[in-house]
Every structure is written in structure tokens, then in C-alpha cells.
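cron nightly-structures :: item 1 of 1
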Amino acid sequence: MFLDHNLQESLTLAKLEHAICIISFVALFLNLQEIKFLFLGEANLEGFEKLQYVTFPKLQILNIPCQCPKHEYLIRFLENNGKNLKEFYTSENNNALTLSIAKLCPNLKNLFIIFNEDELNILKTIFGSCQYLESISFWCGKRFLDEKELLETVAKFSPKNFYELKIYNCSHSELLPEELESFFISWESRTPKSHLI
């Protein structure tokens, strides 16, 4: 397939919704800075098998809000592209994938990922490895992280530039006012946020 070289050089954003065969087509645009995949159905996910080996040297934002490709494919993709990522969004919750984010995406500034209730240590690992992290979004309640433990972890382990926490509750919040007050007291004693570039 012939593509205009200027188009290949200038395209920086790709949003693929319900794409089946077009996923491998994305590999032709190596200057992409942002990619959003909206996978719905197994047929859509299969095209990612080839894409896992492609390196996008300018990629900064990866967004996979719904179904995720096989974890091993996505981890391989992060091995090739995670170092430059500034933002990563996925609704997936897989232990190996979450640990790979800590290892392969050290320059993240914004993260949305699902943590199970027993994965607080993985969050601590991400905070320790992703020292540029400024913002993170979570689901809390039921089978997800406990709000109180989450706030304690954020206050104690988040990096110095961290300033934005978004909590989505899948059930009614059980956080008590005194627990929230305790978080703000702990937060106040942190090192002030340094200048952000």
C-alpha cells in the first residue's frame, strides 16, 4: 500500500474504534504521539498481535478504555514504547500488566488503571518507580482498593510532583470525615510540589 510520505510524517493522533484490520495499518505512522484503541469484541483484539512489536518513538499517550488486548501483547508493546509514555489509561486489572507499568513506564505523569483490593503493594511500587507521576485515578470499594488505605498510601508514598487524585466509587463511600481529615494533615506535611514543566 502506498501512502504519502508527508502524511506518514505529520500524523500524530490515531483514534481507532471498532477497527479490525486497520490496527496493523497504524504501524505505518511512526510519529504518532497519541493512540486510542476502542476494542469491542475478540476480532478487534487480534490485530494487536502484530502491533506489539512496533516502536513509536514519539508516543506519549496510550488510551485503551474498554477491552484490552492479551496482556502479553500489551506488555511487549510497553517494552517497546513505555519509556516515552506520559499518560496511560486502561480499564484492565491484571497483576502482571500493572507491575510492568512500574518497570517499563518510568516517565508517566498521568495514570488510570484498575487495582484489586489486594494490590496496594503494586501501587507503592508504581509510586516508587514512576517519580514524575502527577495524577492517578482509581476505582474504590467492593473488590477494589479501600479508600482509607489508598489515601494513606498516597500521602506516604506518592512522588513529590504528585498533586491530583481521582477516586471513583463502585459503591457508597465508607470514608469517615476524620479519616479524610487525617489524610489532609498527612498531605500537608509533604514536600511542596516543585515547579512543573
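cron nightly-structures :: done
The CA atoms of residues 70 and 191 lie 39 Å apart.
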